[in-house]
Give the backbone structure.
Amino acid sequence: MMMYLSRWLQATWLCDYFSSTSWVVPTVQSIHILGVALVFASMSLLSLRLLGFSSSRQSVSVAALPTLAWLWPALVVLLLTGLVMVVSEPERELLNQTFLLKMVLVAVAAVASGLLRRSMLRHRQAWDAPEGRKAAKPVGVLFFLLWVAIIVCGRWIAYTQ
Amino acid sequence: MGFMVFCKWLEGLGYSSAIRDADWLFPTIETVHVLALTLVVGSIARVDLRLLGITSRQRPVTHVIAEVLPLTWVAFGLAAFSGFLLFSSAAVKYSSDGPFRFKLVLLALAGVNMILFHGVTYRQVSKWDAVARPPAAARVAGAISLLLWIGIVFCGRWVGFTTSAL
């Protein structure tokens, strides 16, 4: 299926335009990296807060909710820039296992943050209580590791052609 | 002239050739570099956005800076170290690469901007700490910092574009 999709994309004028205009792909990649920087730094700060390594003395919900709230707009920017990259070089991404793995991890991260945000909004007091603080620690570790894995996959697409 | 000699010497060191010879070393160090630099840029952006009065307006500036800066420094150390290893592996090539040199210039300017901010504007922070929109000097420092670091990311990407096929 990926083969058909990538062949179809390869034949479009958009793909032609993006790949022949030499500055498009590196520019879009740079914007993508900036998006990654915002997301990963925020997620890391959130993880540090949940693990108790941060100087901020906020409750779990106050620490997490603003970050989780604007994660989705940031992911949209990442998705759009990613889309341009896929359209300009369909085979490089769509036929690459590392890229497909990265997409799965991104979906997991997006769904997990959505679920976490919902849970925190519904059970705020439970999350802010001592038991909630304890439960938040493995959550912090998991999110951090997920994003590290996503970024590593992102870089290794180039090396697993 | 002396700098070229230094670059050639760096390239000849044991670890530099190890990075060139092993398939996986360069990609691994490069990945660490990417992870570290995204933390540097992202965390600095958080401070800059607060200085510009765009995000976390209800939190005092000193709180935001106190929370973020330790992460920034650790990440910067990692980024600089991994960057130096990558540079060593092909020092002659990188030192004559336009985007790479421009990236170093921008890094230096970002450092100057930061020193000026901390040495002058930040000294008075108790006066505007809790204010949602900091004074012009702080906003300017934040804006310059953001622009410089965006430029650094673009330059970094262009180094990869101009020096290799990957």
